[in-house]
Amino acid sequence: MTHSNNTINKERHPETMGSVESEEFSSKHLKEAITGEYNASKQYESYSKIAGTERYPNTAILYKALADAEMIHINNHQHALKDDFKPVTSAFETSSTLENLTSSIAGEEYEYKQMYPQFRKAIKSTTSKQQNRVAMLSMKWAMDVEKNHSKLL
Predict the structure, then answer these.
(1) 53 alpha-carbon distance from chain centroid
(2) Residue 29 backbone dihedrals phi, psi, to 5 degrees
(3) How far apart are CA 38 and CA 19, in angstroms?
(4) Is the pTM of this model over 0.85?
(5) CA neighbor of 49 nearest in space, from 36, 38, 62
(6) Is residue 129 helix, strand or coil?
(7) 3-state secondary structure of 94
(8) 70-to-3, 36, 77, 108, 124 alpha-carbon distances in Å
(9) Which of 26, 47, 126, 35 shows the shortest CA–CA distance to 93?
(10) What is the pLDDT of residues 93-141, one digit of tens each?
């Protein structure tokens, strides 16, 4: 089996992995979650400024609160990761507050409907090491909160 086939097999069948590989599998998803939450936080900070400029003070406050909440998710994920991972900032577009709200709702719904459930399913199928249990809990909390974020928006 080639290295690439071995990698594909592990992605499709993570239960075949050993404990070290399962921790790496968990770490991969935690790093993806940290990066996503970090970028959402930066986006929300920017959206808050736009909402303030457009004279939507309550929306500006909401975006600031959401940016802070995303940082809590990052801290929880970092704790589960046990690593000082530094996420890379992705470029994003800003628009009017109404369009930013629409984009934000879609992003929050993606996180709680697709991203976190997929990550949790993948991690759950690996061995039950402590890091995986902590990662599952961190992702469960984030998933639940993201659902509330989409309702707030």
Answers:
(1) 28
(2) -70, -35
(3) 28
(4) no
(5) 62
(6) coil
(7) coil
(8) 36, 9, 11, 11, 23
(9) 47
(10) 999 999 999 999 999 999 999 999 998 888 877 655 776 788 888 888 8
